[in-house]
Specification:
396 residues, alpha/beta, Rossmann fold, Glutathione S-transferase Yfyf (Class Pi), Chain A, domain 2, 2 domains, six-stranded antiparallel sheet, five-stranded parallel sheet, 42% helix, 21% strand
Length: 396
C-alpha cells in the first residue's frame, strides 16, 4: 500500500497543499507549529474518519474558512484508488471512492495506517481510556465491523445511563438494556482479548531484541473476568473476519469454533457480564451510570512480571510502546496482505540512538514511511539517499 498524492484544502493551517508522496520514504521538515503534524493527521483521518487529536471534526476546518477537503490517490493491491472527504461547518459530510459516494464503513476499509507519535510514548502513564483508544483503533483496521459494534455499544450505554438517572423501577427495560450490552460487550471483549494475544507474541520478540533480556507480557483487565479467563481464544485464519456475525453461521460451524466464530466462548463472557450487571444493579441505580463493561476495562503491561505503569523506567516504557507499534505494523500486514502506511510524528527525537536505529532498520522495505522532524540531523546519509524531502512553514 502506498500513498501517491495528497491534497489538503483549508485543513487546519494547510490552506492549499498538494504533495507528491510517490516514494517509500518521505520526510517533512519544519519547526514546531508549522503544520507537520497536520499533514500526518489528515492521512490518519482518511484511514479512520477520526482525528487522534480531537473528537470535534469542525476543529479541522481552517478558522477563516467554511469547509475543508482531503483528496488522496493511493495504490493498493496494484490498483489506484482515489479518496475524497469533504466537511463544512453545517456538519455536512461527503465521502467518495473513485468519485462515487460511499458509506463510512466501506471508506474506512481502504487505507490502513499506523501512527507513532510523541503522545503514544505516554501510553503506559496515560489513562485507561488512552489505552482503550489505542486498542480500539488498532482492532478496527483489521476487523472493520468492530468499530460499528463499539459505536452501538456506547449508544446503548448512554441510553441506559439516561434511564438510570431518571429511574422509574421499570425492570423490564432495565433487563433489555443489560441484555443488549452483554451481547455487544461480550463480542468487544472477545476481540480485544484475541487481538492482544496475537499482538503480544510479536511484541515480545521485538521487545526482547531491543532490551536484551526483558520479557514483555500483556493482559486485558476486565472488571468481571479473572485474568486466566482466556476461553482458549485462538487466532483467526481469515483476514477481515469479525466476531459479530457468528449468530448467522450454521450450527455446525459454530460448534466447530471456526476462527472467531466460537459461540461458546462469547456466550461464556456474556453470561458473566449479565451476572455482574445484575449484582451491581442497586449501585448503578444509586450512581446513575453503567459500572460494568468494556468501557471500564484496561490493558496492563508487565516487564518480567512487574507492572509497567508502576515500575517501568521511562526507557522501558518507550521500548514497550515501540514494540507495540512495530507489532501493530506486522499484524496489519499479516491480516490484510499489505503493509499499512507508517506515520512517524516527531517521535525519533524522543528515542535514544538504540531505539532510533532499531525502528528505522526494522521497517520493511515495502512499507511506505512518512516522517516529520525539525531537521535532518537525526538521519544518516544512507537513509537520506532515497528520501523525498518537503519543508513546511506556516502551512505552506
Amino acid at each position: 500500500m502506498k500513498l501517491i498524492k495528497l491534497k489538503l484544502k483549508n485543513y487546519r493551517n494547510c490552506k492549499n497543499i498538494e504533495l507528491d508522496l510517490n516514494s517509500k520514504k518521505v520526510l517533512i521538515i519544519g519547526k514546531n507549529a508549522q503544520g507537520k503534524t497536520n499533514i500526518l493527521e489528515s492521512i490518519y483521518f482518511l484511514a479512520n474518519l477520526k482525528s487522534q487529536r480531537t473528537i470535534n471534526v469542525i476543529e479541522l476546518i481552517n478558522f477563516e474558512e467554511k469547509c475543508f477537503e482531503i483528496n488522496a490517490d493511493i495504490e493498493k493491491s496494484e490498483t489506484e484508488i482515489e479518496l475524497d472527504f469533504f466537511y463544512n461547518r453545517e456538519k455536512h459530510r461527503e465521502i467518495k471512492v473513485n468519485k462515487v459516494k460511499t458509506r463510512p464503513k466501506e471508506f474506512k476499509n481502504i487505507l490502513k495506517t499506523v501512527l507513532f507519535s510523541t503522545q503514544d510514548l505516554l501510553l503506559l502513564r496515560g489513562t485507561p481510556q488512552d489505552r482503550r483508544d489505542w486498542l480500539d483503533v488498532a482492532i478496527s483496521q483489521i476487523y472493520p465491523a468492530y468499530d460499528d459494534r463499539l459505536s452501538k455499544y456506547n449508544k446503548i450505554r448512554i441510553q441506559k445511563n439516561n434511564f438510570l438517572k431518571d429511574y422509574n423501577q421499570n425492570d423490564t427495560l432495565f433487563e433489555v438494556y443489560n441484555e443488549q450490552l452483554a451481547i455487544l460487550g461480550s463480542n468487544i471483549i472477545y476481540l480485544r482479548k484475541k487481538f492482544l494475544k496475537e499482538i503480544e507474541k510479536i511484541a515480545q520478540e521485538k521487545h526482547s531484541t531491543i532490551s536484551g533480556s526483558e520479557n514483555l507480557t500483556i493482559r486485558y483487565h476486565c472488571n468481571f473476568l479473572e485474568e486466566d479467563d482466556d476461553f482458549n481464544i485462538s487466532p483467526s485464519p481469515l483476514a477481515g473476519e469479525d466476531a459479530f456475525q457468528y449468530e448467522q453461521k450454521s450450527a455446525s460451524i459454530r460448534k466447530a469454533g471456526e476462527g472467531l466464530y466460537d459461540k461458546i466462548e462469547i456466550e461464556e463472557i456474556a453470561e458473566k457480564f449479565k451476572q455482574t450487571l445484575e449484582e451491581r444493579k442497586k449501585e448503578e441505580i444509586r450512581r446513575g451510570q453503567t459500572l460494568v463493561g468494556p468501557h471500564r476495562d484496561d490493558i496492563i503491561f508487565y516487564i518480567n512480571g512487574e507492572e509497567g505503569t508502576k515500575f517501568a523506567s521511562q526507557g522501558q516504557q518507550r521500548t514497550i510502546v515501540l514494540s507495540l507499534k512495530l507489532a501493530e505494523l506486522d499484524i496489519i500486514t499479516q491480516k490484510t496482505g499489505e503493509p499499512p502506511i507508517l506515520l512517524l510524528d516527531d517521535v525519533l527525537a524522543e528515542l535514544d540512538d538504540i531505539r532510533q536505529n532499531y525502528l528505522l532498520k526494522t521497517i520493511a522495505q515495502n512499507t511506505q514511511t512518512i516522517i516529520t522532524s525539525v531537521d535532518t540531523l537525526l538521519f544518516d546519509k544512507k537513509f537520506l539517499e532515497d528520501v523525498k524531502i518537503y519543508r513546511i512553514e506556516n502551512g505552506k
